[in-house]
Amino acid sequence: MKLAIQENLVPGKSFLEKVNKATEYGFQAIEVWGMDIVNRVEEIKGALSGSKLRISTICAGYRGSLLSSSKEERDKAIKDIKELLTIGSDLGAVGLIVVPIFGPPQIPDLSPWKRAEEIEKELLVTLLKEIGEKAEEVGCFCLLEPLNRYETHLIKTVEQAIEIVKRVNSPAVKVMADFFHMSIEEAKIDEAIKKGKDFICHVHLADSNRLLPGCGHTDFKAGFSALKEIGYDKYMALECRIPGKAEEELPKCVEYLKGCME
Ligand code: LER
Ligand code: MN
After folding, report:
1. Which residue ranges have their beta carbon within 6 Å of ligand 1?
2. Spacing, Cα 4 to ligand 2 middle (Å)
3. For the whole model, what pTM was predicted?
């Protein structure tokens, strides 16, 4: 289990400054935003050369929407996701984070033939098979992220994401687990993680109130011990708000998280 942090949480005017700060605070990797990354590849590579910090993941950043009712929007999302997977591979990232859909369905309910959710899942499986081929070719995972009920209606639990991934049946389409969303949707975070063995390839860290771990009531020790049990050896990236000064709170948080891993 290695600690990472989203780039926007690290103080610094340039990516190089952020890389140096994240390393100083005790992180092993940084998660970058996908939006406009195509224009930042050289800057990112330059900042990483001579540093031991790695790129854990690319967080979204594609245009369009995979489950839109408009073919143009779906095609845009597929094209961008494929490009981001290629960039992810070039940067040595584990994967690209993909949220199947934000908010309510964008396609009509066709019941009694099929409900919107059934159609969405079938469409998602079809599109992920195509995306999975690209992900496999370039060697960068497509990481499905379940969100809580206030942000999506479709994939809300690790188990639901696994169900989709099993139907896709691609070695490059996997699942990620976000402690904030899990604290809302899962009955028990550690049990959800245990069911994710062989599927979970990335983790987001935030406490129950989406502040830094240690500021809420999530049991990180239990979650980390479940991750250890399933042999999880990839990154856990902070995605949260920081109450206070980042330069003081982030090193403290690294120590807190290390303590939860013991
Ligand atoms: C959104 O709540 C979230 O958790 C992000 O990781 C989605 O990209
Ligand atoms: Mn997340």
Report:
1. 59-60, 97, 99, 145, 147, 151, 178, 204, 239
2. 13
3. 0.98
